[in-house]
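INFO batch 0412 | record 1 of 1 | parsing
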Amino acid sequence: MKQFLHSLLLLCTFFCCNAITLLSQNTWTGNTNTNWNDIGNWSLGTVPIASDDVLIPNVSNDPVIMGVTAALAQSVAIESGAVLTIQSTASLSIEGDASFAIYNVGSVSNSGTITIGATVSPGF
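INFO prediction complete | emitting tokens
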């Protein structure tokens, strides 16, 4: 019985921790400027990584992925009135499942590269 309870506790811990990880949302605020790589523009105070779900609402400073930036996200949701711009030498890799990768009711101005699918090696 003790071993069963221990296994159950480990299983619950695994699922609870993974659920929290999957709910990582980083929202664009545009508080500083339009630069995607500026931490002052993100609700979590960090530039999104491959495990972050990104929300881009309609704010005055729309995000621009510029220069040779290789931006990452788990998924990207662009709300109505919002604009995401990807410049010609920049890229955005969306690492999530292709069926949930991008939700766009705003606008995407893409002169660069958008990749959807797993391009980052998992860290086991």
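INFO post-check: Strands lie at 25-27, 53-56, 64-65, 70-73, 75-78, 83-86, 91-94, 102-104, 107-110, 113-116.
INFO record closed
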